[in-house]
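FIELD: query
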Amino acid sequence: MAAPPLPGFLAHLAPLLGHYGYLAVGVVFVEDFGVPAPGETILLAAGVYAGAGRLNIVAVAVIAFVAAVAGDNVGYLIGHYGGRAFVHRWGKYVFLTPKRFQATEEFFERHGGKVVTVARFIEGLRQANGIIAGTTGMPWRRFLAFNALGAALWVGAWSTLAYFAGSHLTAVYDEITRYQVYVLVALGVLVAGFVVRHVVRRRRER
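FIELD: result
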């Protein structure tokens, strides 16, 4: 069966997916610890191929899930073993003092699980959330649980959407990403609110 034409922004991935098949989905792995790679778009392209019968959607989802969790755990190790020293040494140049870094760690201890799960859907945060979790000292088992939940939701949502949307995926994706901006702004406001509340509470305790 001939490969279906990939819609719009996915078209440039056709040679990669056509040549490597399931292996191409492994790009998700390297994207998840900061390497610039089209992890989300390759997942969408693989979903379209699966919808046309070129790939098995279950295999695509399983490979993407394993790659996502593994990649984020590499990021966690990078943050855990190298990030803290890096922040303490260079953070002062971006006004991240040890005192402010400690407050960030405490905030992440309280709300980090939610952030790790939601970050999977936000460009930029998806690539950095493992490193941040490791840097701020989030317990690995807790990170693993919330990260696996986020990966399962992310892979399930995008692979299912691509599988059923097919050639109409571009229009659907554009609509979703339009609202993603509002979600990101709302998340930023929420995080800022938690930080302000934490600072006010600490001052009152003193």
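FIELD: remark
The chain has a mean pLDDT of 75.
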